[in-house]
Write a structure and sequence with these properties.
Order of helices and strands of chain B: HHHHHHHHHHH
CATH class of the largest domain in chain A: Alpha Beta
Oligomer: heterodimer
Radius of gyration of chain B: 21 Å
Shape of chain A: elongated
Largest sheet of chain A: 6 strands, mixed
CATH topology of the largest domain in chain A: Rossmann fold
CATH superfamily of the largest domain in chain A: P-loop containing nucleotide triphosphate hydrolases
Largest interface: A-B, 30 and 23 residues
Strand content of chain B: under 5%
Chain lengths: 389, 256
């Protein structure tokens, strides 16, 4: 991507009143999406989120108010010209069945009058960017899987390096496993291309995962809360948002954290050949919360947990009695770490750095204390990092 | 729709018999002289006569082909334009469908004679009538093809910045091609059959060899004419099928 560009999008009292309808679908919506961020419009069906999104490229005409891209009103633009500067991805993908993959990707550049060689080069570049074999460029859409087609849909939207991307439930029709993969791929891609994205979904989990900011909308196109995912989960502004976010918002917050964001327990370490009396003394110290010593090698890499029986002899044995169980990394997402603990039916797991050296112990207790503590909520704001960063 | 060609053939044969009395006036110039196989009515096909008279079929075949091609081309141009018009203005769909439908139900022979006072004897009258018959099939299939284009493809096209005209010519019509050509195939085959009736209004074609002057029962000439009609219908159909294959490569690329 040589010429990355992105513009902010600003809704200014934007209103859509469909003919024959007394209630506006979108009612005086004001919202600013900073350049380069993903803004998720989320809400139940009929809340006007798609209508709001479509105002940006004027596939829905604005009845009142305005939408500005950069500082420019979309109302001043010729619709077809405007749309060529805006990437458009829809749930049903809508690839042209009669065009090859390369031709599909090159559709907007072709409209913009690019030269053939440049279009071909751009198609190839984008195929690579979305991780598809360049040979697939000569295939027709019907020859690709649903997931591949949706990747092509994203590539097609990116082809002319748009200022803004509109994505209407782009992964809604994909099976859960592939959806997760596509979400991750898109976040990775976005980290690289830094587009301004308006992303519509009805799935709050997807919103939390994808959004830099989330606008929770309800009937009539009214925004109930516009905030970062963490803020939304920590402090829902209204009852509607609280309901929509769900009773498990505490767990959802874990999806936004990494193991490194929390204070770990210190592990009582033991080395092979060390006197067991020494290890016992360590365990008896007042500030030790882990009741079992962790056997590590010379590089401080964990080998296993020592049991009472291991400590019954004089020196620490080379082979620990208890298996090591799950080993977590600092970069692991907290929700996955908790899932690991629960799955192994264990209370504790050693946490290692990227070289595999022990840095501490994570326990179920730490996590539940963290979720319960009020100070966690104030901490969290700074601690939260989005999983893909 | 597919019953049309055979119905056309059947009506043409039946009507030839019925028109035997009046038809004589139109074909005074035709030779109704000696027919060699008449002496042996038990023989359905007279090879000797066929061998000697094959060249009689040359000009009528060319005329027949001309009638078919010209009327289908005109019919296509009109029906296609009507379909595009109705596609743009939805309220025209039903009235146009009804109008072309009514024209389609007029019996061919009645249509020929209705046109006579207006356009007179000759090829033009035949072409007008034949072209009118193709309208319904081509119009309906074109509409069907345009309707079948998935709305998500059109939504994506619009969202990407194609103008309405670009969506029509670059997306909708290419995707409607299979249905449009399917309509053309039916139209061509039925026109080949109905064109045998052009003889009644002096339009020429293979009907001249089916109606053998004053003698309606000389079977050899009828068999040869029918064979040419069938071969012509199949050949034109095959050509259109080939065109469809060539213009819609994506439809054959279903599996990897």
């Amino acid at each position: 991507m040589s010429d990355d560009q992105a513009s902010s999008v600003r809704y200014d009292e934007a209103t859509k009143l469909y003919r024959g309808s007394s209630e506006p679908a979108v009612d005086h919506l004001s919202l600013e999406v900073p350049a380069g961020e993903i803004c998720v419009l989320v809400g139940p069906s009929g809340c006007g989120k798609t209508t709001a999104m479509r105002m940006v490229n004027r596939t829905v005409e604005i009845s009142e108010g305005d939408v500005l891209i950069g500082e420019r009103s979309v109302r001043d633009r010729e619709p077809a010209q405007l749309r060529r500067e805006i990437g458009y991805v829809i749930q049903q993908i809508g690839l042209f069945p009669h065009r090859t993959i390369s031709q599909n990707i090159g559709a907007v550049p072709q409209l913009l009058g690019w030269e053939k060689d440049r279009i071909r080069a751009r198609s190839a570049e984008l195929l690579e960017l979305i991780g598809l074999d360049p040979e697939l460029g000569d295939r027709y859409p019907s020859q690709l899987s649903g997931g591949q087609q949706q990747r092509v849909g994203v590539a097609r939207a990116l082809a002319a390096d748009p200022l803004v991307m509109l994505m209407d439930e782009p992964f809604g029709a994909i099976d859960p496993i592939n959806r997760e993969r596509l979400q991750n791929e898109f976040l990775r891609l976005q980290a690289e291309i830094q587009k301004t994205v308006l992303f519509v979904t009805h799935d709050i989990d997807e919103a939390i995962k994808m959004g830099d900011r989330i606008a929770v909308m309800r009937e009539g196109g009214r925004v109930e809360q516009y905030a970062t995912p963490a803020e939304l989960l920590m402090a829902p502004a209204t009852e509607f948002v609280e309901d929509f976010v769900g009773a498990d918002r505490a767990l959802k917050r874990l999806a936004l954290m990494r193991v490194s964001d929390i204070n770990l327990w210190e592990a009582p370490l033991a080395h092979v050949g060390q006197a067991t009396a020494e290890v016992r003394a360590k365990l008896d110290a007042a500030d030790v919360e882990v009741p079992f010593p962790l056997l590590v090698d010379g590089e401080r890499r964990p080998l296993g947990w020592l049991s009472e029986r291991d400590l019954a002899v004089d020196v620490v044995p080379g082979k620990p009695d208890s298996p090591l169980g799950p080993v977590l990394e600092l970069d692991d997402v907290m929700r996955d770490a908790l899932a690991d603990l629960l799955q192994h039916e264990t209370q504790y797991a050693p946490v290692v750095d990227h070289r595999g050296r022990i840095v501490g112990v994570l326990s179920v207790e730490i996590i539940s204390e963290f979720l319960a503590s009020p100070e966690a909520k104030t901490d969290e704001h700074s601690a939260v990092e989005r999983p893909h960063d | 729709m597919s019953t049309r060609p055979s119905r056309g053939l059947m009506t043409s044969v039946a009507l030839l018999a019925a028109a035997g009395d009046v038809g004589g006036d139109f074909f005074r110039e035709r030779d109704s002289g000696s027919l060699p196989c008449q002496a042996r009515p038990d023989e359905p096909f007279c090879f000797d006569w066929a061998k000697d008279n094959l060249d009689r079929f040359g000009t009528p075949t060319v005329q027949h082909l001309e009638l078919v091609v010209i009327s289908v081309v005109i019919g296509f141009a009109v029906a296609f334009a009507l379909a595009l018009f109705a596609h743009r203005r939805g309220w025209l769909r039903a009235p146009l469908l009804a109008a072309t439908g009514v024209l389609y139900t007029i019996p061919s022979i009645a249509f020929f004679f209705l046109l006579l006072p207006v356009t007179g004897l000759g090829k033009d009258t035949a072409i007008i009538a034949l072209a009118v018959y193709t309208l319904q099939i081509i119009y309906r299939n074109t509409m069907l093809g345009l309707d079948n284009v998935s709305s998500s493809v059109k939504d994506a096209a619009r969202g990407m910045g194609l103008t309405d005209r670009q969506i029509l010519w670059r997306v909708e019509l290419p995707l409607a091609t299979p249905e449009i050509i399917a309509g053309l195939r039916i139209a061509v085959v039925s026109t080949v059959a109905i064109a045998t009736l052009a003889v009644f209004i002096g339009g020429g074609g293979l009907g001249t060899q089916i109606y053998g002057g004053g003698n309606l029962t000389f079977p050899t000439s009828i068999f040869i004419s029918l064979a040419i009609v069938v071969v012509m219908a199949l050949a034109l159909d095959a050509i259109l099928l080939a065109i469809q294959r060539l213009t819609t490569p994506w439809r054959r690329a279903r599996t990897i």
